[in-house]
Structure formats: C-alpha cells, structure tokens
Amino acid sequence: MSISIAIVEDEKNYNNALKKVINYQDDMKVAAQFFNGKDALKNLPDISPDVVMMDIQLQDMLGIEIIEKLRKEMPETQFIMCTSFEDDEKIFNSLKAGAMGYLIKGESMDKILSSIRDVYNGGAPMSLSIARRVLNHFERKLPESKDFDELTEREKEILELLSQGLLYKEIADQKFITIDTVKKHVGNIYRKLHVSNKVEAINKFNHFKN
C-alpha cells in the first residue's frame, strides 16, 4: 500500500520537483498539491493524506496555523515542516502545533523521501541542525517526576521501546497489540507528560531514568 502525500508549498518549482521525485517511488504517491494556505486549509480534510509536506511561510498564512486548525480533524495525518527557517520560535511552534518532522529546504531528496517513510512508520525525522536545537532546548527544561508517575506500566513499557528507536509496528508486534492501540497509548503518554511529539517524550523519559 502506497503512502499518500499532500504538498503545501507556494514555490512552484520546489513543489513540482517534490511531486516528481515522490511519484517516481514505488511506495508513495502525491494525492494533492497546494500552492497557498487557503486552498490547503479548505481541501486537506477531504483528502486526508498519510503525510503532508508543509511549508512554514506561505504567502497567505503560516503553515503552523494550518496544522493548528486541522490537527483534530486529521488525527491520522502526519505533518512534516519543510522550510528554510531555522529559528527556535518557528521550530517549537511547529512541534507544539503537532508537526512530527522538521526538514530544512536544501536537504537531499533521499533524505526527504526517507523522512516521509520514517514519519509514516511512527518516526520523528528532523534535519541534524534542528534536532540539536531541540535536544539543547529540552536539556534546559527539567520535567516534573509527577508527570511520569501518572503513566501506567504499559505506557512506561511503550515509552521505553520508543526511546530504543522502535517503530509503532515493531512495538505492536512485540507487545501483541494493534498499531492503533500503540497510537492510543502514545497519545496518552503525550498528554500526561505534557508533550506534543516523540522527541519531547523521549527526552523527558531519559531525564526520569537518570
């Protein structure tokens, strides 16, 4: 089954280049292209793709706003920010809004394709420079242990496996549960730890362990 992808990018050449490379792959296809935020906001919920490649700075609105408005309507869709911006505020606002990946334009197409597959399988792909900023940020924020105490034993087990780099399917197979059940547990983990993505959850988990 191929991964369906929507591209939201107002730079036409880059949008079309992404489409061409993605459609060349055997395991993915572009379900829709959008060149402005208004069209994306209106049509994305009906398409409900597996992955959205989202530009942050569209001409008519911020990609972050689109994610904030659509996240609840599209719980199964994963958003990857693809942008030329590397400032901390945009990175963290994107992650808080619900983006599961953050790539810098200029990454190789191989990296972009592998990131699409990664996020589809439960990963949180980021450009190296972005990942360093995120890790440095969370090293400065000390979480409260009472958040961790609220997790059930099963949630702690799943968080441990996530921290080991296992994908949702691998966790489901190991625990003899469905991928949907894993996703529900992960959602509960995020809520109880007051985080919005896997990177934050793992950082908190590592802090509690130490």
Largest sheet: 5 strands, parallel
CATH architecture of the largest domain: 3-Layer(aba) Sandwich
CATH hierarchy class name of the largest domain: Alpha Beta
Quaternary structure of the protein: single chain
Approximate shape: globular
Number of strands: 5
Strand order of the largest sheet: 2-1-3-4-5
Provide a descriptive summary of the structure in words:
- GO terms for molecular function: DNA binding.
- Residues 4-120 form the Response regulatory domain.
- This is LuxR family transcriptional regulator.
- This protein is of the alpha/beta class.
- It has helices spanning 12-23, 37-47, 63-70, 88-97, 109-120, 128-140, 145-149, 153-163, 168-175, 179-193, 198-209, and strands spanning 3-8, 28-34, 51-54, 78-83, 101-104.
- It is built from eleven helices and five strands, in the order E-H-E-H-E-H-E-H-E-H-H-H-H-H-H-H.
- The chain has a five-stranded parallel sheet, sandwiched between helices.
